[in-house]
Amino acid sequence: MVHLATDNYDKIKASNIEFGLPQPNYTVNTLAHLSEKYPEKEFTLIMGADNLKSLHKWKNYEVILEDYNIIAYPRVSTGDIPKEFENHTKIKTIMAPIMEISSTMIRNAIADGKDLRYFMHHQVQEYVEEMHFYK
Fold first, then answer.
1. Looking at the structure, do residues 21 and 81 belong to the same domain, yes or no?
2. Residue 111: is it exposed, middle or buried by C-beta count within 10 angstroms (0-12/13-18/19+)?
3. 77-121 pLDDT, tens per residue?
4. Of all helices (H) and strands (E), which one includes residue 70?
5. Number of structural domains the chain divides into
6. How does pLDDT run across 23-55, given as a tens digit for each residue?
7. C-alpha Rg value of the chain to the nearest Å
């Protein structure tokens, strides 16, 4: 489904690289692997801002913050972001509209037979319908 959604975009590349890494896998390992495989590239971690609340619990989060930038997309959530991440030089929270879209919402809407044409790429929607996913 990721390939269906991204194949027509030159600046986006889908990857299944994590499937080949030893399990359990952690974000720090994926980033290290990518950096070793593509040393000429610079990688940035993109996450929902709600994930910043638990970033301090991630395996080797200090290494991630030392070696990579993080872009945090605003999300509606409860709880506070730890003070150490609020003005961190490696973390940038972008100003963007908050969109209340989640995979759970999409799966539930499909199960309820709702129209989701504005929530996913049309090829992905066709594939989900053909495969009878989430019904």
1. yes
2. exposed
3. 778 888 899 889 999 999 888 887 888 889 999 999 998 888 889
4. strand 69-73
5. 2
6. 999 999 999 999 999 999 999 999 999 899 999
7. 17
Contacts 24+ apart (CB under 8 A), 47-53: 47/71, 47/72, 47/73, 48/72, 48/73, 48/75, 48/77, 49/73, 49/74, 49/75, 49/77, 49/81, 49/93, 50/75, 50/77, 52/81, 52/82, 52/85, 52/91, 53/77, 53/79, 53/80, 53/81, 53/82
- The token pair that represents 96 in the structure block: 């963007």
Residues 6+ apart with CB under 8 A from 61: 28, 55
pTM, full prediction: 0.79
How is residue 112 written in tokens? Answer: 């309820």
Q: Is the same domain home to 108 and 42?
A: no
94 and 106 in a single domain? The answer is: no
Give the residue numbers spanning the domain of 89.
2-98
